[in-house]
Design a protein that fits this description.
single chain; about 150 residues; Rossmann fold; six-stranded mixed β-sheet; 6 strands
Length: about 150
């Protein structure tokens, strides 16, 4: 099982509502650089937070890869989501891309590798992590790479 976790690209710093912050031009370019690392990977689905910047990020990746299936928008990938709740959603999937936000991204990567109680991974905007294991086991997934654009 492989799992890719992508933090959204750079977004505008302010908006009336946080969930409506859009990607900047720089953020779009960051996402394209990260998408290049997914070329040829056996993705089966793209799951994304409903926040605009994550939706835009997921769509850029989908377009760059020519990925046919629709993006699956899920509430469990918002910034403050609990990594344990995210892991519960991943039990029966493999080879998926998650597009989300910090602090969830850093906390989830740490949780999947080390279990609870460890500091979060540091992930820049459009940072892309690849984790692998024969099955989803909390605290035992291997971080194959963490690429920053």
């Amino acid at each position: 099982m492989k799992l890719w976790v992508l933090r959204h690209g750079e977004a505008v710093p302010h908006s009336k509502i946080d969930s409506e912050r859009e990607l900047t031009e720089h953020g779009r370019k960051e996402v394209l650089r990260s998408a290049a690392h997914l070329m040829g990977q056996p993705l089966t689905a793209i799951y994304a937070s409903p926040y605009l910047r994550a939706q835009q990020t997921a769509q850029i990746v989908r377009d760059a890869l020519g990925f046919e299936p629709e993006i699956r928008t899920v509430e469990w990938l918002t910034p403050e989501s609990d990594p344990d709740k995210v892991a519960e959603q991943l039990v029966s999937v493999s080879n998926v891309l998650l597009v989300s936000h910090n602090p969830l991204v850093g906390n989830l990567l740490s949780y999947l590798q080390h279990g609870a109680g460890h500091p979060p991974e540091r992930v820049s905007t459009a940072g892309l992590a690849e984790l692998e294991h024969s099955e989803l086991l909390i605290g035992s997934m291997k971080l194959n790479s963490l690429k920053h654009p």
